[in-house]
Amino acid sequence: MSREWTIGGDFVVRHAGMPFDWLEALGAPDGPLAAARELLDAEDALRAAAGAGFGRLARAVEACEPERLPSVPAALRPAADRWRGAAHRYRDRYEDADADATKELRVVLERPQVAEAVLLSNPDAYRNMLRPLLTADGPLNSRRRRARRQLYTYVQRFCAKNETVSFFGPMAYGTLAEAETGTGTDGSLDGATSLRTDLPRRRKVFLSHWAGRALARAIARDGALLPDLVFHRAHPGDPDGAPPALPDGTAPELTRAAGAAYGRLGADGATLRGLVRATGLPARELARGLRLLLTAGAADVRLGGGPYDLEPLRTLRGQLAELPPSGARAVWLERIDGLDSCRAELEAGPLDGGPGTRAERIAALEAAFTAATGESARRAAGATYADRAVFYEEGASPFALRVGTAAARHWHERLRAVLEVCVAHGAATQRAAVDAVRAALGDTGPLSLTAYAARAAEAFPAPGSAFAVPYAPTYPVADAAAGLARLGAAARRVTGDRYALVDLCVKASGAAELEGAALVVARVHHHLLVPGWLGTMHSGPRPFGADAERWVAEQDGRLVGFDFGRRNKGYYRFPGREVALRPGSWADAERAPWRPEDVTVTVGPGTDGAALDGLAGGGPAGGGAAVDGRAVGDAKRAGVRMSGPAGEPVSAYLPLNDFVKYAPFAALSHPQVAHPAFVPGDGEPPDGGTVSDGTASQGTTTESTVPESATSEATAPEGTAPGSATPEFTAPESATPAPEGVMSEVPEVTVDGVVLQRARWTLDTGRLGLPAPHARFLELRRIARRTGQRFLFCRSPRERKPYLVDLASPLAADLVAHVAREAGRLTAEAMSPGPDELWLRDAEGRRYTCELRMQIVGREVSG
């Protein structure tokens, strides 16, 4: 058996919002770099001359303190004098370079779009750091140096991170020519690749989800409106259910009132005024009973449009307009109209209006929100990546990519082998998740999903933003070629459809060169490109997520989405049946999701391990050597299985990456497709996984062996996908010995010429945090010499996002010292594509980092 892989017709072009050229220009000029080269040459000569005696000189050399170099024997004096002279010259050049770096950074920060981006990211940083740094004179003191470092952090984010936020992380889209129905001027399908750079740069401003909820709470607290607000059951699909258990000690009259109110919350809901008439109970008792139902999550007030409402102000205004006229209603309608007016002015503001104008409009919106709700308009202490503001903004990119038929065909052919490797690794990882669940929970027999999740929560750490998968197998890079061959062969014995989102990077100097260009698979996600926030600015002829909707429909109900609710601005709507793993809402009546109590999970015996034939995993519940992704309820093939209300076998679609890696949910998932990690030695954990372009692929913390018995054959047996040749798996026979200052090195790993894992280094952070700025920069130049790179994406285990470190920039030396503080080690990865391989260019020829987030599905075909 084999799979035919198909790239979806529409995809997301994730790119930085500002040119990479601006960041690259902040590197040191040739003079200081030449002085550093001279010093490092002298250092190498002194090290060689001193031999074993270099240890007593090392501290002064590493800290670049020539005045503290100990006396040396006569034979070493020429080398020592050479080093001292070079060190003094380097330090003099560095002082000038450091001052020039501040001036060059100010030039970038004075650009209106950069200043506005800082304002939108963190208004406090704009006011307390950016403005003072631009106006301060004289040398840097510790406070201004700290501000310089923080602002440089923002610049590297704006110019090198493929994020999606406002105009400095705009939303761009692409299409495959072969998926279009239009024709060229000659009547045939135009198969050329083309890039538009002139699309309108639109903004959309939304009230944040948390702010909409705060506004609804404030309205509900208004006693003058309370009698006419409409209350519903939080689970509309369960009109005959018993009232929830109330806290011990609840007064009998309140228990009676809550039960009476709950029993009369029909499909259309009920008002407090109506409940008083229907029950004859006192309004005060019923109001307190309703409050108990709200607290217990059994009832919901009809304010707002539920967790996925993108226009809460419009929704709330419409709901208030339906209430009987009153002074309170008029006041709230005026407040909401005022908020919406502020929001609209912020959205309509010109793109070149400057940060000053935007700051005034933001202040007006924040003041109106606080006046209406009594709550602060900011939260999360200004954290960069938190949903901390009362609003969020999305922007449309000027770019649109159309991939021609030849380039699309090339990508289909080159990605097939990579995806099959990820199928096998996903199966092994999922098998490990099943084993972890069974080891922790034992054979439970049938449980509701609620009970299963509760038991799992006691046994497993809460899912968070960690990028490593603690139970996933890893693979020693020294045996990468053989390990990849075994994974490729094992994948041919794993049956059933698969899906993945691939972040694809293409190495080219321009869009016209995409056909036949070298490819880098930055990351493979176990997701679909479902309708959601990534489609906010999409305006193509087909609905965003149409490919995902079509494939889900093909599964005929066997795939069920786990609905965890909205995460800040992010939301995903699975185009099929969902299970609501979030508080219920009156708005659920429209989609009628299952409740977790409706779903059964059984943890029980699975297939004999021998049947796996060395493959560590199979289907969603750890099947055998041939695991049909559709047979998820087969007790003979499943150690952990899930079924719907009627006992039908189902598997889970997990929309959030945190839960894809959470073993109890991974065990219930549709068969996974996962990105393998290759590590040094026999399984040293990479401390964070892949760190490229603002994303991280799955790392590891467990043993790192490819199952030897999966297969030792590198040839493709019967059942290989039509038209495919034997994949070529390449990696050095052994990892390169780590140079000094680098704790370990993992060379680039490729499959069929496609980069599956970029070159990586684990860096010793001891010298990166040296006290003197010139010594820190010199350490960056050592790393540049030893890695052959100028730009490295670096991650600390303590940080959620990676940083692009320019090893030629004094500004980056301060940044990496801050990141390395208390980190122990940093994981670094080569910037690939490199600066000269950035094909996304604007009308002025400026370069942008980018990746193509593409949905790819593999449909099983007969061999």
Could you explain how this protein is built, in words?
By secondary structure, the protein is α+β, with helices and mostly antiparallel strands. Strands 1, 2, 3, 4, 5, 9, 13, 14 and 32 form a 9-stranded mixed β-sheet that branches. A 6-stranded mixed β-sheet has the order 10-17-18-19-15-16. β27 and β28 form a beta hairpin. α13 runs antiparallel to α14 (354-373) and α21 packs across α22 (810-820). It starts with a strand and ends with a strand. Residues 181-189, 607-637, 684-726 and 731-739 have low confidence and may be disordered.
Terminal Cα span: 5 Å
Mean pLDDT, as a whole number? 85
Q: How many helical elements?
A: 22
How many beta-strand elements? 32
Instruction: Flag low-confidence runs.
Output: 181-189, 607-637, 684-726, 731-739
Notable traits:
36% helix; alpha+beta; nine-stranded mixed beta sheet; 863 residues; six-stranded mixed beta sheet
